[in-house]
Amino acid sequence: MTLTKDEILELDRRHVWHPYTAIDDGREPLVIVADEGASFRDADGRRLLDGNSSWWAAGLGHRHPRLVRALVAQAERLGHVSLAGLTHEPAALLAKELAEVAPPGLGRVFYSDDGSTAVEAALKLSVQYFRQTGRPGKHRFMALRGAFHGETLGASSLGGVDLFRSGFGPLVCDVVHVPSPAPEDDAAAVSATWQQAFARAAEEITAQREHIAGIVVEPLVQGAAGMQIYAPAYLAELRRVTAEHEVLLIADEVFTGYGRTGTMWACDQAGVVPDLLCLGKTFSGGLLPMAATLVSERLLEGFRGGRERAFLHGHSFCGNPLGAAVAREVLAVMREEAVIEGVQKKAPRLRRAVETAARLPGVRRPRQLGMVAAVDLAEGGYLGNAGWRVYEEGLRRGAYLRPLGDTVYLAPPLNIDDADLDRLCSIYEGSIATVMGAAVMGAG
Prior knowledge:
- By secondary structure, the protein is α/β, with parallel strands linked by helices.
- The protein is 40% helix and 15% strand.
């Protein structure tokens, strides 16, 4: 049985609670019926280019044929067993292959379900490690203002966007938030801003070294804060000072990893090896919920000594064979189809798109790194409306450009073909021009 568009919408109105959406939003959701490559198709037959890789997860596009074949082949052999006292080929081989591409020394893999749970595992691992190595006072964390690390309570605690965490005040942990190294006004002022931010972070780490277990960062790009980009030098200096004071550096590469910034890991651009690295999203190609936390052998040593020192944490679908098989194929596609090399060739087109948009009145701070690019519109912030007007115009023109408030950004699939990329950027430029042109005329 195939439902009509109206039947789907009626069921949706009655029963579905959409994420990050007001109950009385008033916008009717798009009904999507198919996806392929860099686009999806709605129930009205429109092909819409996916400007944000479906919340950054479809890094290799939608239904990459090799990933689909890997999923089907695995489903015909082994669907699911727990990883408690059991193992299987996909999980074992994936862990080996992750260790081979990870920053040196991150040779242990703890599987989980999504980016939030990967971060949550990193927090708990860090606290337990210090407790079991004679430093129980090290149980607090630091994060950047504007940070976003997920939706679970520990990950929400790290969040530096007040709008996302303030409603859960009694539940979230006490986290030290330090200034973001990304510039607030002029995107060209990256080099000046990071030094001031680092000085503050170093001061806090030094003052609270007996209590801080780790600092969690999104390397080089703070995604949900509005695609705020900062200098690799900040990360390098942070690694130096955290090592000096035995504070763990936890890299949340859920968004920035797997080539999004132009290298396999954003940490690579700073020459940095974190103590823990969290990954998700493109990790499983947008097909299945799957994530991992990569851990150094040094941390692993803190958990030896019997059951009372074991990491008592896990998920029902930890290391799921289907997800692991697809994640292995993602790594194979990235190697064999030269995905990261392609990012480096495509990235200048995104740079031109934001620079073109920034010539318009009311458009500011063009910024780009790898396959991430953004501009800011009016001063409305996350609850502003200008970005949503661009979103509506983009739909009319054939692209899905869901904004971060008044930050309008592009983060398309890494392997989007050149013709689709050019069309997407043209829609982006034209949609902003239409909306901001109307805004200027309205103000006049």
